[in-house]
Write a sequence for this structure.
């Protein structure tokens, strides 16, 4: 029995060590990618600036509602759009641009594949870029991978296609995709907001009525706290982003 317990402890220790190695590997990869400036999680600043971002749109109902709220509170945002939906709802994307918001690439089909090839990703990026330019006349500089999933291949392919990868500040995932209720979504954002944060929300991909209601709480509260809500490009420009992670001295 004693030998069995010792064997079990060895297995547990080995498993924990393996888990730590995986975590360390992921952390190291983020460090190297972030250091290069090819991917961004947040900006390093004391200025009260945050970047609002919305994924998976445009949506015919929720995106216009969100645009109205952003206008009401003088907030700007970056919309990571899906090419197929841009083609389906061109007037909404045109309205986003008209209101001074930023358009970014979130693939054309939004079909997640862990074994995504470079060739396929390039095709997805190019198709989305072309439809955005055709409809709005603007070019896109940023790309957010589906689900925030990234690796060296995805980041390098995006970079070679002329894109900088934008993830989000990990403690600023609103988790609105879980539909936990408007108050909980707002709490997820407001409980730990820091200067330079990139905030993740969604205007498409499901029922986003809770997101709209949450914004009615989030936007005035951020404004009251002295935060300016800007696009990703404005955040990076005004903080003179150099590619280094916030936790470096």
């Amino acid at each position: 029995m004693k030998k069995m317990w010792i064997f079990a402890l060895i297995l547990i220790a080995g498993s924990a060590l393996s888990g730590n190695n995986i975590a360390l590997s992921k952390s190291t990869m983020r460090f190297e990618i972030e250091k290069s400036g090819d991917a961004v999680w947040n900006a390093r600043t004391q200025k009260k600036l945050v970047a609002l971002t919305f994924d998976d749109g445009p949506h015919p109902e929720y995106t216009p509602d969100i645009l109205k709220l952003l206008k009401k509170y003088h907030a700007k945002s970056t919309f990571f759009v899906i090419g197929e939906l841009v083609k389906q709802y061109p007037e909404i994307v045109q309205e986003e641009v008209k209101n001074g918001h930023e358009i970014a690439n979130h693939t054309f089909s939004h079909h997640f594949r862990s074994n995504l090839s470079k060739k396929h990703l390039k095709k997805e990026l190019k198709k989305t870029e072309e439809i955005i330019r055709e409809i709005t006349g603007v070019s896109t500089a940023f790309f957010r991978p589906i689900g925030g999933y990234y690796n060296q291949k995805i980041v390098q392919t995006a970079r070679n296609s002329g894109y900088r990868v934008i993830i989000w500040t990990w403690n600023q995932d609103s988790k609105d995709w879980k539909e936990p209720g408007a108050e909980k979504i707002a709490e997820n954002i407001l409980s730990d907001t820091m200067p330079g944060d990139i905030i993740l929300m969604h205007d498409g991909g499901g029922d986003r009525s809770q997101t709209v209601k949450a914004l009615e709480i989030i936007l005035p509260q951020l404004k009251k706290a002295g935060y300016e809500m800007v696009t990703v490009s404005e955040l990076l420009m005004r903080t003179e982003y150099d590619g280094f992670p916030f936790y470096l001295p």
